[in-house]
């Protein structure tokens, strides 16, 4: 009888926390689409050099990359709930700083606001791991999938807020959109206060690093490095193209609303396949799904090269999102299969540093290239990187036949 009571209590607690995390993901992940869809457009008015137009989005990615390690440390020391509440307050501050910077025409402080948004995102991106705490096998996969549903909701909330609030502050375009970003983070703060459980410092995804291969030995492992490379290329190319897309759309005569819709459909395409990607990996193998993702990313570039009509942008961005989903989730599965439990901390940390560091670097490069050479070259540059990783992926997948 006692065992049944404990199990029921644990199940109720898990469902409660899962609901909290889905809601928090829906609110927190909406910051990204707001920053990405407006960062370049705001900078065209604030920056003195057109080549700096995508700098705020690059700074956002840099904040995400740099925030991952301290966020993990804070959660190990003080628990998930405390870390997530701190992250939400950083999210509130980010929106307020960005809105204030737009009001005063201060480009450097606008970049500070997007950097803080990136730090907030470093906490948001770990919600899916929190959902998996204490879960085993299929339960863990289902929990992660449910939290990813929050990404779908965020993909709708973010761009719609851009459209609804961009003129909310009279005479200061887009300040209202970043105030709405702060409001979402504030709501997320109160939602996260409902997170329950002991939230131990040593969680499932931060095991001891004692034993196993060193970082240099991991770097010398072809199996591990192929997974890392696939993740870097999938995420890096997606960010590289997505950063420049709103500028390209507006530059081709499409409206700001159309640019926001394009990012919305792109982000929807990024998260929607997550509900079936795990099943595809189980059926066809992680290498084949990863390869399919890279091929779809290549097709998105080919579509973008065929024209500049609205349909070309929308189809390309949707394919880019689907390709990212297959490529990045498949690559994550490859990395997870390429290390032992004892190596998990350093192997996953090294992978995340490589992925998000590359994303930040490419988004910096994207703005200058967009201004200097245009949308077509950005899409053309995808193909060599896809080929470099796709060739060994196909070879490895063929060996499994």
TrEMBL record:
<feature type="transmembrane region" description="Helical">
    <location>
        <begin position="263"/>
        <end position="282"/>
    </location>
</feature>
<feature type="transmembrane region" description="Helical">
    <location>
        <begin position="289"/>
        <end position="308"/>
    </location>
</feature>
<feature type="transmembrane region" description="Helical">
    <location>
        <begin position="143"/>
        <end position="162"/>
    </location>
</feature>
<feature type="transmembrane region" description="Helical">
    <location>
        <begin position="350"/>
        <end position="369"/>
    </location>
</feature>
<feature type="transmembrane region" description="Helical">
    <location>
        <begin position="53"/>
        <end position="75"/>
    </location>
</feature>
<feature type="transmembrane region" description="Helical">
    <location>
        <begin position="174"/>
        <end position="192"/>
    </location>
</feature>
<feature type="transmembrane region" description="Helical">
    <location>
        <begin position="224"/>
        <end position="251"/>
    </location>
</feature>
<feature type="transmembrane region" description="Helical">
    <location>
        <begin position="106"/>
        <end position="123"/>
    </location>
</feature>
<dbReference type="InterPro" id="IPR020846">
    <property type="entry name" value="MFS_dom"/>
</dbReference>
<keyword id="KW-0472">Membrane</keyword>
<feature type="transmembrane region" description="Helical">
    <location>
        <begin position="82"/>
        <end position="100"/>
    </location>
</feature>
<keyword id="KW-0812">Transmembrane</keyword>
<dbReference type="Pfam" id="PF07690">
    <property type="entry name" value="MFS_1"/>
</dbReference>
<feature type="domain" description="Major facilitator superfamily (MFS) profile">
    <location>
        <begin position="215"/>
        <end position="401"/>
    </location>
</feature>
<dbReference type="GO" id="GO:0022857">
    <property type="term" value="F:transmembrane transporter activity"/>
</dbReference>
<keyword id="KW-1133">Transmembrane helix</keyword>
<feature type="transmembrane region" description="Helical">
    <location>
        <begin position="314"/>
        <end position="338"/>
    </location>
</feature>
<feature type="transmembrane region" description="Helical">
    <location>
        <begin position="375"/>
        <end position="395"/>
    </location>
</feature>
<protein>
    <submittedName>
        <fullName>Riboflavin transporter RfnT</fullName>
    </submittedName>
</protein>
<dbReference type="InterPro" id="IPR036259">
    <property type="entry name" value="MFS_trans_sf"/>
</dbReference>
<dbReference type="InterPro" id="IPR011701">
    <property type="entry name" value="MFS"/>
</dbReference>
<feature type="transmembrane region" description="Helical">
    <location>
        <begin position="20"/>
        <end position="41"/>
    </location>
</feature>
């Amino acid at each position: 009888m006692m065992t049944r009571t404990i199990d029921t209590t644990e199940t109720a607690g898990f469902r409660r926390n899962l609901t909290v995390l889905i809601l928090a993901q829906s609110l927190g992940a909406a910051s990204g689409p707001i920053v990405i869809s407006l960062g370049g457009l705001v900078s065209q008015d604030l920056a003195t050099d057109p080549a700096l137009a995508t700098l705020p989005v690059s700074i956002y990615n840099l904040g995400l990359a740099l925030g991952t390690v301290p966020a993990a440390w804070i959660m190990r020391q003080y628990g998930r709930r405390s870390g997530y509440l701190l992250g939400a307050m950083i999210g509130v501050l980010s929106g307020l700083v960005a809105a204030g910077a737009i009001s005063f025409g201060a480009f450097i402080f606008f970049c500070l606001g997007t950097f803080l948004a990136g730090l907030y995102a470093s906490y948001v991106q770990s919600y899916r791991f929190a959902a998996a705490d204490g879960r085993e096998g299929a339960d863990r996969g289902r929990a992660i999938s449910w939290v990813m549903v929050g990404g779908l909701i965020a993909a709708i909330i973010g761009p719609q807020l851009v459209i609804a609030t961009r003129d909310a502050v009279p005479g200061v375009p887009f300040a209202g959109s970043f105030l709405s970003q702060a409001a979402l983070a504030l709501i997320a703060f109160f939602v996260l206060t409902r997170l329950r459980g002991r939230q131990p410092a040593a969680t499932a995804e931060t095991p001891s690093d004692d034993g196993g291969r060193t970082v240099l030995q991991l770097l010398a492992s072809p199996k591990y490095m192929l997974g890392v490379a696939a993740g870097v290329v999938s995420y890096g190319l997606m960010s590289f193209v997505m950063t420049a897309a709103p500028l390209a759309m507006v530059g081709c005569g499409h409206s700001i609303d159309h640019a926001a819709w394009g990012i919305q459909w792109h982000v929807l395409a990024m998260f929607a396949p997550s509900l079936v990607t795990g099943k595809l990996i189980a059926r066809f193998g992680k290498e084949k799904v990863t390869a399919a993702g890279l091929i779809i990313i290549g097709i998105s570039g080919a579509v973008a090269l065929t024209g500049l009509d609205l349909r070309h942008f929308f189809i390309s961005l949707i394919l880019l999102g689907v390709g990212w989903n297959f490529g990045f989730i498949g690559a994550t599965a490859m990395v997870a299969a390429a290390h032992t439990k004892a190596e998990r901390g350093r192997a996953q940390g090294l992978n995340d540093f490589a992925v998000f560091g590359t994303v930040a670097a490419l988004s910096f490069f994207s703005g200058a290239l967009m201004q200097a050479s245009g949308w077509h070259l950005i899409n053309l540059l995808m193909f060599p990187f896809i080929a470099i990783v796709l060739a060994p992926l196909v070879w490895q997948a063929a060996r499994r036949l």
